[in-house]
Prior knowledge:
alpha+beta, 2 domains
Amino acid sequence: MPDTQRIPRIDSKSLDELMATVSTFGSTGDGGVDRPALTDAHAQARDWFAAQMRSRGYEVRVDAIGNLFGVLELAGPDAPMIMVGSHLDSQPKGGRFDGAYGVMAALAGIEAVREAARARGITPGCNFAIADWMNEEGARFQPSLLGSSVFAGELTLDFALDRRDGDGHRVGDELQRTGYAGSASAPVPNAYLEVHVECGPHLEREHKVIAPFVRYWGALKVRIEVTGEQAHTGPTAMAQRKDAVLGAAYLISAIRELVDQAPDTLHTSVARLEISPNSPNIVPGQAILFAELRAPEMATLTWAEKALESALPGCMKRAGVAGRIVSIDRRPAGRFDARLVEMTEAAADALTLPRMQLDTIGGHDAIPVLRRCPAIVIAVPSKDGICHNPQEYTCAEDLAAGGDVLVHMLWRLFRADGDLDRAREDA
């Protein structure tokens, strides 16, 4: 077992200060933030963070889809690159820890390793990069994980630039408006690490502090269009109405009922509706549903997709309307890199931090990045499991604990010249 006294720790005061400052951008005044992708608040947070990286000597790059990177070349341009990061965009009226913690910990963690190497006179063997991925949340523009998916080659740049929000604003135009339409090349990582709040209750419930995510659930993001007939809500006879929202309501109920046929292995939601013309005095002529189906195994998702397709005609007939599936974004289920899981657990043990393994049901940028390099997401507790809510909270001690695990892993990779297998063996 390595001498833990020789392994640097994160500067918890610096991490706290970074978290406090980034939380002011888009602050809702009740502990949360409202910072959807490419809003003014999001751009302000990114501008501030880019300045923080520049002031510390990082080369700031922005690629064509607006991913923001800070590159620290310590070992020369051809040396291995270890990337760390997450995202600064948030849900509308979301929490201040989701995403932002991973970006702030990336900066504080790399700086801890850098300072320790400088103080000990150690010749660097690898380079580092910080990633702030564009539109992880998918709140304003769909699909989620947009920037990291372009980085990974899962989505084309043209497709991503042409995504539009509910008001018709286009990603490409909003990148230009906010100053994040870049042209720089993205760093090419040998490994990617991300620390994140759990967004679930398991760590707190089991009195644990650290959890590598071992598996990630698959997801189907389904857009469904229901078409009825616009009419007056007063004189139009009930029997003559073709209410698009009524058809949507029947379908929402049917989607929820799928869960009862696959308990504990399927999560469903319809969390967004776009209603036209959206007047209290008009029977709606159109409703667009944004449905999600999530499961740990692809077989369950395949079954759920077929069940949804089968339920659609009956729900529409019942309301006297028409409906069709417009698009499905598919995210396959899978596993994170086993070597990085092992390194996470070794770091937690060396630091005497109670740990467990978890699945992640929510999406993370590390999932598409896995197509480019080994990747991992490391979770710390969320109080009461609350996430995407202003009441989202993780205490400073747990934030620092996750930061220490990150530094431990970065130090091992740094001392192994960025070689993941060597770093794992040394851990």
